Structure formats: structure tokens, C-alpha cells
Amino acid sequence: MSKSKQTVVIGSGAFGTALAAVFAREGEDEVMLLGRNAPLIEELRKTRRHEAVLPGVDLPQALNFTIDPSVLQTADTVVMAVPAQAQRSAALYYAPYLNGDAVIVSAAKGIERASGRLITDVLNEALPHHHSGALSGPGFAVDLAAGKPIAMALAFRSPELARDTATILSGRTFRIYASGDPVGVQIGGALKNVLAIACGIVEGAKLGESARAALISRGLAEMSRLAVAMGGEAETVRGLSGLGDLVLTGSSRQSRNFRYGVALAEGNFESVNAALVEGVYSASVASELAASHAVQMPISNAVARVLDGQLGIEKALEELMTRPITTE
């Protein structure tokens, strides 16, 4: 009989808790949710509920909770489910406790603003003795935690490691597709947040479903161009982590990025906590990456300028609609 695997999910927010719940629900491997908020972890242990972010969802009995980082010493797989801008600091904080053979999976969808680097590059720098991969794709935390069918992509530089880790983390309701293209997977995951803000602006400005469909299709072209310029594959972006996630977050108010775009267009942006909106951080970085790689990304650039206060929404729409006519 093979030894069960141990998985630790770092981060007790909505997505981290949801991932830990779906991993634990399979009942085959040991799963631990590791957080730093002691009162919250104790509440989760007692009530099996995280009402603040996953209302009405019962967390499985097999899921364990702790604030003790020593659990990482025996973990085979460590899932970093903290925001993109906190991945480096979290990695450095937990590094001394990691099992030397642990595989690291980032569940963040963003680009580090300070360095302009993809998160797996950040983790490879912070944890040079570990293999780091990226998990991304369409899936709201509440659906994931409730055990609804969801599919995502998991990318490592090694396709074999991606397949092995995907097999460990997949389950009856959570299917993970392995990829050897971490650049494409992460560009899709990060830029879909920026484009979801643009979709929210279209919604808030009442420009219609046709305009949003056009934005999604042209936004996908921007994703593909940047991914290829950075060494990724266009086909990856047309999959779960790019198109799939963009369709989901660009059309639902469950998405923080979409809601923030709506609030911007309605002049009510203070109603959404921008600190929790990954697209706010990724927009300017994406614009800088586009410039450095000589890639045309008019939609992402417009979002960045709107967020930086350099461009009004009406003027941004005017500029996009008066761009020179080219071939698709």
C-alpha cells in the first residue's frame, strides 16, 4: 500500500480555504490549512465554516487547521494561496520549515508589481531548491468549496512534474490539466484580471453584451501576443487559464475585478476594496511588459491609464474605438 501524500495549503482566505476543502474532500491524502490568524483558524476548527468568505459551505471533517508552520516539514506538496503581491514574503517566511523535497504550487493570479516578474520566477528566486509551478483557471472559491465541477491548469517547467502533481491534487469534482508552459498559464491568469476590470467597465457603462464579447475576443489576442513575446505559447492562453478564466470573470459579479470595473464606470469605486483586486496591481505591470516586449495591448494599456488616473473612461472608450482599422 502506497504512503498517503501530505498537502499543506498556505492562506486561509476564500481561495485557499476552498482549495484545502476540495483536496480534503477526497479523503485519500492528509490535508492541512495553514494560516497566521489564530482566532480565525480556531473558529474554522470549531465551526467547520468560513462564513465571511464562503457563506453556507460546510468544510470537510478530514480538513485540518493550524497556525504551526512545522507541519511543512512533512508536506509533499505546498500550495501558496496568498495574494500575488504577498507570495515572495510568504515564501521567505515559510522557507526554513519546508521539507527539502516539497513541490511548491502558486495559486495566485498576478504579476509581482515591484519586479514585474511572474510568480513562479519569484518563487524560484525565494525558494531556489524547490520546483515551483502555477495553478490557474476558471473557478470561483464558493463553487470550488461546495464541490461543484471545476477544471484548471497546472504548469511546471517539467511536464512530467506537472502531470504527477496534477494527479495528486485532482479529484472527483476538481480536474487539473497538466501543462509545461508556466509563462502562458500565468500570463492568462494575470491578464484576465485586467481584462475583467475592462469588462466590468463595459457593464457599468451599459455598453451592451456585444461590446463585452468584442472586448473578450480582442483581449484574448492581447494575452496571446504577450505570452508568446515572453516565451509562452498562444495555445495555452486559449485554454483554461486564459480564455476559460476570462469568460468566467469577465461576465460575473462574483469576480472582484469585474465588480471593481462596474464600480469605476458608475463612479462608485470606493464600494470595492481595491487592495483585494489583483487586476489593479497587474494592469500597470502588464502595460510595462507590453512596452518592453514591443507588444500592442491597447485594452490593457487603457485599463492601466484609467486606474492610474491618467485617462477618463469616456476618453478611453473613444481612443479604443478610433484606433486605425487593421486586419484581425
TrEMBL record:
Under catalytic activity, the entry for this protein gives: sn-glycerol 3-phosphate + NADP(+) = dihydroxyacetone phosphate + NADPH + H(+); sn-glycerol 3-phosphate + NAD(+) = dihydroxyacetone phosphate + NADH + H(+)
Q: Which residues bind substrate?
A: 109, 256-257
Nucleus among keywords = no
Q: Which GO terms describe its molecular function?
A: glycerol-3-phosphate dehydrogenase (NAD+) activity; glycerol-3-phosphate dehydrogenase (NADP+) activity; NAD binding
Active site at: 192 (proton acceptor)
Q: Which GO terms describe its biological process?
A: carbohydrate metabolic process; glycerol-3-phosphate biosynthetic process; glycerol-3-phosphate catabolic process; glycerophospholipid metabolic process; phospholipid biosynthetic process
Q: According to the UniProt entry, what is the EC number of this protein? A: 1.1.1.94
Annotated residues that bind NAD(+) are located at 11-16, 141, 256
Pfam families per the record? NAD_Gly3P_dh_C, NAD_Gly3P_dh_N
Entry keyword set: Cytoplasm, Lipid biosynthesis, Lipid metabolism, NAD, NADP, Nucleotide-binding, Oxidoreductase, Phospholipid biosynthesis, Phospholipid metabolism
**Which ranges carry the Glycerol-3-phosphate dehydrogenase NAD-dependent N-terminal domain?**
8-160
Note whether Glycoprotein occurs among the keywords.
no
Where sn-glycerol 3-phosphate binds, per the record, is at: 109, 137, 192, 245, 255-257
List locations, semicolon-separated: Cytoplasm
NCBIfam families for the chain: PRK00094.1-2, PRK00094.1-4
Q: What does this protein do?
A: Catalyzes the reduction of the glycolytic intermediate dihydroxyacetone phosphate (DHAP) to sn-glycerol 3-phosphate (G3P), the key precursor for phospholipid synthesis.
| Family statement drawn from the similarity comment of this UniProt entry | Belongs to the NAD-dependent glycerol-3-phosphate dehydrogenase family.
Q: What is the name of this protein?
A: Glycerol-3-phosphate dehydrogenase [NAD(P)+]
Q: Organism classification, top ranks?
A: Bacteria, Pseudomonadati, Pseudomonadota, Alphaproteobacteria, Hyphomicrobiales
